[in-house]
Amino acid sequence: MRSIGQLARESGLTVSALRFYDSAGVFGPAQVDPQTGYRWYAPDQLADARLLCRLRRVGLPLAELRLVLAAPADADTAHRVLDAHLRRLEDGLADARRELSSARKLIDEREQPMTTTMGSATAQDAVRITVAGPELAAALAAVRFAVSTDPELPMLGGILFDLDGTVLRLVATDRYRLAVGAAAARAAAGTQLSALVPTALADEIGLLLASVADTDPGAEASVTVTGGSVSVAVGGHLVTGECLDLDFPDYRRLVRLEPSYRVELGATDLRRAVLAGPTRPARPEPGAQAGADVTAPVTVLALGGNGDLRVVESAANSPDELGAEASARAEELRVAVNQEFLLEALDATQGQLVLELGGVISPLAIRSATDVDGNFSLLMPVRLS
């Protein structure tokens, strides 16, 4: 048996780290002296302690540390956890590079202020991309419902146009739901485009795209960002306006979900079930929406062990439910969401859907079953007492 000090020296972990992981239920001693409280570790625990030390260096979360250490040697559970964490780290590095690139531009602008001519700033180089008109219209329609109307959050009062490689992503959020639209884009290599388009201007763009679609369904739209303005030209018509000079939240971190469950079903069937099913009242948080003093109906979705999704009345199993079907009901995952938000998300994503659930406090993702990487919505769960 090894003392905690000896195990610390041989594993690379500190004594305080070993005590922390013991209290967190991740990695504990084989034996604790009842008189002195000294921790003693078995010889075969050294390998796990060294593994824990390496995983700690790369920031693996506690819950996933438990999974890796508890996984059987002949299972691939541990490898799946590490693969998922590596993807998160790679995505985080990509985010850091983007943020540092933007920071460098801000530093350059501060050190070399824009020169002026005739009292006005000289025009910056225009950034231009081309998008299919119908795809841009569909992406706008898929996110419009999620734009915030809260005057205390002006940075959410618009739609983000964000070029991600060859995909133009449109993003809107009010903190309680988030919607992402996608449209294939063509641009010169290395093009970077990110513009926060005010709601009113986004609506003008949507109306323009709809009017042109009646006469030229295949028309392409040219999106141009110059300095603080954005313009969309399609079918010989042009809409232009000023961007919001505000920082939109980093949506990329929010959409990297690793759901535990996926359910495929029709949007019409789910909408019918939501409208016909029971609801619960829940008082929205201040600032969630207009009329926050009025209770909002909440829909509780229950995912059974056999994969069926139902609308139920309670967010937790009641004693009556734990009768003859105790084993099945007890294993249900139940997620409560704002009913109005859920219906709007269903309207924005028609046809066959894929619902992704990660737990009672994880966002509910609603995607198209035919295009899981396209337009989708996230709904924040509602906590019920």
UniProtKB/TrEMBL annotation:
The protein's name: DNA-binding transcriptional MerR regulator
PANTHER family listed in its UniProt record: BETA SLIDING CLAMP (PTHR30478:SF0), DNA POLYMERASE III SUBUNIT BETA (PTHR30478)
Gene Ontology biological-process annotations: DNA strand elongation involved in DNA replication; regulation of DNA-templated transcription
Domain HTH merR-type: 1-71
Top-level division of the source organism's lineage: Bacteria
GO cellular component, one term: DNA polymerase III complex
Keywords, alphabetical: Cytoplasm, DNA replication, DNA-binding, DNA-directed DNA polymerase, Nucleotidyltransferase, Transferase
Record-linked Pfam families: DNA_pol3_beta_2, MerR_1
Annotated organism of origin: Kitasatospora kifunensis
One of the record's GO molecular function terms: DNA binding
InterPro entries documented for this protein: DNA-bd_dom_put_sf (IPR009061), DNA_clamp_sf (IPR046938), DNA_polIII_beta (IPR001001), DNA_polIII_beta_cen (IPR022637), MerR-type_HTH_dom (IPR000551)
Subcellular location: Cytoplasm
The family this protein is said to belong to: Belongs to the beta sliding clamp family.
